[in-house]
Amino acid sequence: MLQIDLWKRVLIWLVCAAGVILALPNGFYTRVEQANDAAAEIIAKGETPERLEAIGQWPSFLPSGLVNLGLDLRGGAHLLAEVKVEDVYEARMDALWPEVRDALRPERATVGTFRRQPGPADQIRLKISKPEGMARALEVVRGLANPITTLTGVGANDIEVSAQGDILTVQLSEAEKLASDDRTVRQALEIVRRRIDEVGTREPTIQRQGADRILIQVPGIGSASELKAIIGTTAQLTFNPVVGRGSDPDAAPGIGNKVIPSLDEPGVYYTIEAAAVVTGEDLVDAQPSFDQNGQPAVNFRFNTSGARRFGDYTAENIGSPFAIVLDDEVVSAPVIQSHIPGGSGIITGNFTIEESTNLAVLLRAGALPAELEFLEERTIGPELGQDSIDAGKIATIVAFIAVLVFMGLSYGLFGLFANVALVLNIALIFGMLSLIGGTLTLPGIAGIVLTVGMAVDANVLIFERIREELKAGRGPARAIDEGYSKALSAILDANITTFITAVILFAMGSGPVRGFAITLGLGILTSVFTAIFVTRLIIVMWFERRRPKTIEV
Amino acid sequence: MRLKLVPEKTSFDFFQRSKLWLGISALMMVVALVSFFLQGLNFGIDFRGGTTIRTEAAELVDVGAYRDALAVHELGDVSITEVFDPTFEEGQHVAMIRIQAQDDGEAISGEMIEALKATLETVAPGIKFVSVESVGPKVSGELIQTAVIAVALAIGAVLIYIWLRFEWQFALGAVAALVHDVVLTIGVFSELQIKFDLAIIAALLTIVGYSLNDTVVVFDRVRENLRRYKKKDLAEVLNISINETLSRTVMTSVTTLLALISLYVLGGDVIRGFVFAMIWGVLVGTYSSVFVASAILLKLGVKRDWSKPSNTAGNQFANIDA
Fold first, then answer.
1. Which of A481, A486, A464, A460 has the alpha carbon at shortest distance from B228?
2. Closest CA–CA distance from residue A124 to any residue of chain B (Å)
3. Do A224 and B132 count as a contact with CB atoms less than 8 A apart?
4. 0.80 exceeded by pTM
5. Would you call A498 and B213 a contact, using CB atoms and an 8 Å cutoff?
């Protein structure tokens, strides 16, 4: 009958109390946020009096988890980028070409002379002058392949070598392409993350989406263009031997060479060898600095292998120019004056201080392995976000009061019980959102408002049932008990079906829609909990104290 | 004294004119479909690609001047609408500019946005772009697909759940009501040409959930009453069940509508379309659980003898009275 074990009562109140305490920080959002930021800075950069003061704004014994505000509420930028994974195939082939050349050179007696032919960028096409030596050429080039491990193929190699007539074709194998795509996206993800961290913004979301996409959300940033400027610049640094200098952009570069413009001298084009001596990947550090004339410049340092290659190259080519190439533009093309050991150097050019700082950041964060194409971008200004929060807040409060009054008018004392549960319900939603680090979006606020409306449903079902039982002549205790047990199946069925839709929304949706699914789903859980445990407990406690002979619902 | 929206005891006959109601529903669905196929939906950029810019300026919005200023950029189809909202402050004049998707798969470039802003500043000095959203045509196609799958999955999952918990006739009735609600909601968006974007899909799924909630409560009572009144014919049992749950149906609809209407009026223009869809959905969903779901259940008929457990053999969930 109307008995609830003591331990259950304690447990129910504990859950409610936990919900309220977890929700509490959200009531003092700015203060807690400042305290949290200060705490993070103290760990990262050490204590200062201001930080200690900021941290003192919120007592440390209280939880400090906050509901994350979505971009539509806080303002910020959202980008969906597709990684052009095919770019890497081309770079791989360009890197392989010298190896192929070196391997075939000693075989000239059998294969004759050979030339690289123009063809698709993700292939090396070789024409050999003695087609009868093709078998040997295949054997030699195949010897360059490395075995790779895949889930399906045992003994697969990273390159596929085939021959047709006097043309030998080298390309990446399908398995290697798959593996390469995955690596590329991961690497791009990591670099994007590092670049955004370098700028130091609050709680960026950087996620892989699907096979080759990256979702980037940065709250508080001015615009998507600004964000793209930080991450999108490919900052591909290479050091290439210079073949020639001229003013014709369409000059025939010759196989293995390419023509690229100068960064700061208009109309000047350099012909350089496409295969780089050293690339930005070997870079371990880059710092903004000044050259001997006091012009802004960037100091850099290579890792050991990069330093060795750079040292060897400079030792062998004293007197010839080499190009410092940034994103296919020649920053400068100094003549090598002496052997440069130790692997450090300086990039000079017509930089402003800001440009040299940005360049250093980009170099330090590493080069993106492939180009990013932006498929979706959204910028939400902070004013609009604040307007939405304000409007949402007022709407929620008004909705809340309207429902409270309506429930009070309709069910009297029992309505008040339901109202207590409704207040706890909202606290529980916010508490759980803070606990799981959920994100509140504008549709999410709508989800909460909808929950306010629908949360009373379970109570309405129960109260209506109690009314029916009373009408049927049952005593108060019996009516309450029956009301609860008979309404239960309807409550569960109705809420499970709604919950199913919330789960599907969560799984299929993204961004704001997902925020809506979270609040809707949590709202269903908490409203069922408050209806069948909290209101019931309140009613039982009231009943035990008053022992009414008759009740009116 | 209690506020009672529904009298203590009601005995409306909901099936007296069930043909009429089903007819009206069918007619409304036909109208919705005709509108959908003739004029289609006013898809937002989520679904057809393109760019929307929300501008804010101190002066009144002069749509013609904006349009003339932007014409130099040759962006193709550009639509400019002024936005009004009671929550705006004095001197806050908002416009939405929508630009069709440009050629390639990418979103609009940052330089273009800056250029547009510079142009607009000549007609509205100090104009601010408070939000810029751009979706490339490549993604928008996928978003449509995902949305359709989501709605279909939701309806399918529900069909299965109700079938397991009740009987297939109930499931069909419930799903017919759901399809009815979804079609009418899409119809209203097509008829009034309200912007249809991703958030509306969320609203649609919520409507699915809400309508179902209502239907399941009625069905739960039908199941109970079928066991209680074994001799009465189905129409009578359905009528009793709907009457018994009527008070609850109205109460829940009213509280939900109270909450939604306050959000509609005060929640700002950004989510007004979304809230509109939900208000419409609550109204239609409440109607459909009585006049569509139950009417179809009546047409399909239902197995009456729930007392023998052997009848539910092979359906292990049917007997769980949770």
1. A486
2. 29
3. yes
4. no
5. yes
